[in-house]
Amino acid sequence: xxxxxxxxxxxxxxxxxxFYKPGDKLPSVRQLAKEHGVSISTVQxxxxxxxxxxxxxxxxxxxxxxxxxxxxxxxxxxRPPQRPLEVSQWEEVLNMLMIRSRTxxxxxxxxxxxxxxxTLKPLLKDLTKQDPEIGLxxxxxxxxxxxxxxxxxxxxxxxxxxxxDDLVITSGCQEALSVCLRxxxxxxxxxxxxxPSFYGSMQAIKAANLKAMEIPTHPGTGISLEALELALxxxxxxxxxxxxxxxxxxxxxxxxxxxxxxxxxxQSYDITIIEDDIYGDISFQFPRPKTIKSFDTDGRVLLCxxxxxxxxxxxxxxxxxxxxxxxxxxxxxxxxxSMCPVMPQLAVAKFIRLGGYAKHIRQMRQNYEKQRxxxxxxxxTYFPKDTRVSFxxxxxxxxxxxxxxxxxxxxxKKCREHGVGFAPGPLFSATGKYRNCFRLNYSEQxxxxxxxxxxxxxxxxxxxxxxxx
Amino acid sequence: xxxxxxxxxxxxxxxxxxFYKPGDKLPSVRQLAKEHGVSISTVQxxxxxxxxxxxxxxxxxxxxxxxxxxxxxxxxxxRPPQRPLEVSQWEEVLNMLMIRSRTxxxxxxxxxxxxxxxTLKPLLKDLTKQDPEIGLxxxxxxxxxxxxxxxxxxxxxxxxxxxxDDLVITSGCQEALSVCLRxxxxxxxxxxxxxPSFYGSMQAIKAANLKAMEIPTHPGTGISLEALELALxxxxxxxxxxxxxxxxxxxxxxxxxxxxxxxxxxQSYDITIIEDDIYGDISFQFPRPKTIKSFDTDGRVLLCxxxxxxxxxxxxxxxxxxxxxxxxxxxxxxxxxSMCPVMPQLAVAKFIRLGGYAKHIRQMRQNYEKQRxxxxxxxxTYFPKDTRVSFxxxxxxxxxxxxxxxxxxxxxKKCREHGVGFAPGPLFSATGKYRNCFRLNYSEQxxxxxxxxxxxxxxxxxxxxxxxx
Lengths: 469, 469
Known about the structure:
2 copies of one chain form a homodimer. In chain A, 40% of the residues lie in helices and 14% in strands.
């Protein structure tokens, strides 16, 4: 047994015996080295192993802490290839998007919010009450001032002081991400991303002829800053693209100090951050978590968001707070699709102004948190024991990691026959990793049918499960 | 005097004396060379000069004809620089788009259709009658099948047999053009375009990091195939981007045989054509002119269009018939803005299906033709005598060429003070040419206020007019 393994065992024991409690600060590397008479690098190696086991977590500038242990079966830290790669998987994404499911199928593959919520009624009523003539002409290419004003009000909750002139309305978050990527890069550039990452943003990276550098990501705290810094030292990375709040597909929220640290890192390497905050408003924390944008003092953060997850994707109302890239972003937004339709913008602006939006997301947060727990319970009941699952602190999606011998693409085909859909893992990697993972949606309220779907899913997985020897 | 000038004078005399009438075929080059004892190239040079004077026009494979002389004061043939250039003018375009006009201003700068037409009422009524819930979720990324089916029906009138699977719905024609450019090019490629050209498409060329090669363009018959062929011989041109039917900003429609000839040229150089047909349905010809796409047998034509000019730009309903580039176009459309809103698509599909659209464009064609003639008459009355003006055979915009000493950018500032707006010429060139030109809109029905606006415009122009010596 090596020195570091020995040390790791002793530390693990201390944690498991309760000597150090969840959230406690652990001794510093220097202190432990002195205490045990070993080298600094031996202690670091021991902590690295415990970090991999999710027992401890590193906090930048603060040292190591015992993990909060929300859950004891989180997916493992991702270990993507440490070099920039072209994004593949378009065929797989297209196949999933084009699936015509059986009408009775339980579709757990899409990241669609609950759109039957009664709190949406004022908005829907208003949409049909508008005079359709107001929506016929061209409008401001940055979007209506009414909506931009309301967005500034909302931004305060995430720690941002914005002016309506700092915003550009887009056709959903997908256009926002796509426009931002094109505004800050040239073809051939490298973008650092979390791994796993949302397939829509990765396909935008592909379409802009960029390379993706997947960075190891912790299922509880997000992108590894150590690995990111290593990558920044080694490669000419142009921008970092992250979804740090209620991440898609995993659901974690990066701690606030880590967000600030990420911003400082971007500053010291003089690179840009594209921050996707699409799920930010449906975080289960109150007040909602701050964005990286809230730390931005020099305009290097481009914040992208939309109402696709908090209201409905069919609204196609998204936005960018482009910081110092405002002119370039305005140009690319204009050539990309000219201006956005006016009526949905006005309806959403009114919904926010009259308080309907705040009421709606308050209700949704409550529902989604309850539904998350119901789904976790069902997974525990029906899935094999070695299943790992993420513990989202917001959103309505979670990430499942199965036994490494199970192929989620094959599993998907089988499950479709049973009328249950999910989003297979390889879609969330630039290079088709995470074959034993998938993403599930829990936005719909619990029902017998949904319970049956999770049970069926478990049964199919069990037929794929390798037999214990 | 050179031999060719001599010959040109004699031919001009014959035409002016009525020896050859408008539309008549002129003697072949070979015949004239023999008759006058000069070389083939001398005759060609003489014809080229008369063509420049718009007295004669060349028809591919048929020879030279006396121009139809719809009008005797057409703008001159454009003579852009014969090399690929980067597109500039974004500041100027942005300035125009961001202008907050006085509320009482007569805005002749935008290419907006008449949206007060009673024939639009069934569509507007239907928009508010829809159940808003149908528009909340994600839909087919290619757009609704209902709309794609109706578009195939419409395409028959332009000579195309399409299948719903051959179409991708976009957020207006701007997204269609932008997606097509990105689907068929790599950064640094050269795109051949008409000169002048629509600023929105040129800015899309700029944003895709492409170079524009402006080709001399005849104000009555469109892009010069001779000049285009020369350019294709000299430069590695990747695609041709044209608006051959009811061109923006000029209004000409390329004759059908010339469209076919252009397609053959693209075939022989194995390059792609992006065809913008946004004004095609409001051609004054009946049946409407064929598209270049109608000659396409090998899928090299990407047809782009939308209902922004035939219905209203605020609908944001456009489409692409991408030919052999379908997969690439679907990918880029998806990353560009995900799917398009469902409700406008369904409303437009129903409007077409029930005959409302056919009725509406029949009415619009009649109105616009009448309004064109009223505007031409007003220009003749109020503008300086040396003003040249295009003769659109469709659309609701025309192109004015003033004395070469007048700067339309300065003129625009002055006219804005008077409460009259227009689109200045430099916006329609990659490199800020056409300073003495501008585009006017005639989509609104004639009124005292509009008559006053044209009169005011004429008065301001007259203060800019150089004094005759």
